Amino acid sequence: MKVRHDIHTHTLFSSCCYDPEATAAAFVEKAHELGHSVFGFSNHIWDERVPGASNWYKGQTVGYGLEEKDAIPSNTHGIKILFGTETEYCGMTDNLGMLAETAKKFDYILVPHSHTHQKNFVMAENPDVKAYRKTLAAEICEKLPGISEEQAQRMASTVKYQEVLAAIKEHTVDDGEYLADFLFTSFESLMVHPEFVKMAASVPTLIAHPFYPCGESKEQLSRVLGMLLAQKDRLFDDFSTAARMNVGLDVNIGTYRSAEDYKDDPMVAVMRIALEAGCKFGFGTDSHSLKGLENIRKGDAIGDAIGITEKDIADII
After folding, report:
1. Cβ(4)–Cβ(38) below 8 Å
2. What SS3 class is residue 81?
3. Backbone phi, then psi, for 44, in 5-degree steps?
């Protein structure tokens, strides 16, 4: 199957995009060049009516995000333009970043449950890491008399998560198992979140990069995905729930690491289970740059490796 759509994209209206060429007009022209029949915009948005936004999300309000609609050119070369958004689900607090009522302002919604790199917002830190930071803060107070406990805690919090993990001599929690468990529990809690249930019933909704722990090393990714696949029945049950709710899945190009035919890629194995469970799919580059949109061509081989055909594509597409 040749993929002729891309519904996971980020222009300069997303705070994580730094490509000056990543404008709505340029994206439409690139979509035309790539031969797309459908193209979607899905910049990050946190509904300001929902409390709990991180500092990063606070500026990316609904009103701000909707402004990009005016930047979409009138000449779309016959491409069906979808104006969506990617919001957030914080599994650690069961907090969904958009109300179902607000979601109706968009053509579709992407909801990630696996932004595990956003520690202490989306996912709580590994308890070993949390304990180590407390110890580190106490050592800072001891070595720097006169600073407050709060200052010491802030200093300890700046040490990178992976650096803290490496510094811990005796682990009581396996970080890979901790991640795998979170991916399961966050997906399952999202599926029963009252606002998400209403959202999925009223607006086309897809899960962004499902079960992919964002920001992890290649080695850790392999471990975590292996742990997930070891619980195939649980994955099947979770995907079956999504299928019953008509919740689609984002085939996110950046989450597939294998070369050539992708047949041994662990994310392909995960998505084969989703296909077996009856899920529908939408492909997305998750590009934050104009050039990155070209990665959609990898989707042809990825889709073939999973076994996705035209009948398995989400209705919105």
Report:
1. yes
2. strand
3. -70, 135
Q: Which two tokens stand for residue 78?
A: 């016959």
CA distance 240 to 244: 6
Distance CA 273, CA 256 (A): 16
Q: How many CB atoms lie within 10 A of CB 256?
A: 21
pLDDT band of 78, cuts 50, 70, 90: very high
pLDDT in tens, 149-197: 999 999 999 999 999 999 999 999 999 999 999 999 999 999 999 999 9
Q: Of all helices (H) and strands (E), which one includes residue 13?
A: none
Which pair of tokens denotes residue 50? 């929902």
The whole-angstrom separation of Cα 262 and Cα 272 is 12
Encode 43-52: b = buried (16+ Cβ within 10 Å), e = exposed: bbbbbbebee
Domain extents for the chain?
50-62+86-123+174-317, 127-172
Distance CA 126, CA 111 (A): 23
Global model pTM greater than 0.85: yes
Q: Are strands 89-90 and 95-96 parallel, antiparallel or unpaired?
A: antiparallel
What are the tokens at 159? 């040490």
| Residue with the two structure tokens 């919604």 | 109
pLDDT (tens digit, 9 = 90+) per residue, 237-256? 999 999 999 999 999 999 99
DSSP string, 239-283: HHHHHHTT-EEEEEGGG----TT-TT-HHHHHHHHHHHTT--EEE
CATH number 3.20.20 given to 50-62+86-123+174-317: yes
Query: How far, in Å, CA of 176 to CA of 259, rounded?
Result: 24
